[in-house]
Design a protein that fits this description.
Largest sheet: none
Oligomer: single chain
Shape: elongated
């Protein structure tokens, strides 16, 4: 999972970087950089995902991403087709939130497996 999370970091940072000419680019750069930070933590220090406060923060970010995905879900018919999203900012934003949510779900899966790998206390 470290490699998967490492690739996610690179992709999300790239997505944030291409927001430079968007009128609401700083907002979307932040939206991409938050899950990039979580993926970096999962790639470099997965043991920290075992800590309860860290998991709660991750779950809060996932809940925000799911809510954001529902809020900006594309309303255009056929929004997944290139000729639609290429010309529709709302369709691209909806797809961006879907990407963020999937990335955070992968980090949550990493946290879950990191917690499952923890030895149990005896006594």
């Amino acid at each position: 999972m470290r490699y998967v999370n490492g690739v996610l970091v690179l992709l999300l940072v790239l997505f944030a970087a291409v927001q430079y000419n968007d009128p609401d680019g700083p907002v979307w750069a932040l939206i991409y950089l938050v899950p990039a930070g979580w993926a970096a933590l999962a790639a470099l220090q997965p043991q920290r995902l075992r800590q309860r406060p860290v998991r709660l923060g991750l779950l809060a970010c996932l809940a925000a991403a799911v809510a954001g995905t529902v809020y900006v879900w594309p309303q255009q018919p056929g929004w997944w087709r290139q000729e639609v999203w290429w010309n529709s900012e709302p369709a691209r934003e909806g797809m961006g939130m879907m990407i963020v949510t999937v990335a955070l779900l992968i980090v949550v899966a990493t946290a879950w497996t990191a917690g499952a790998a923890r030895p149990r206390r005896q006594g």
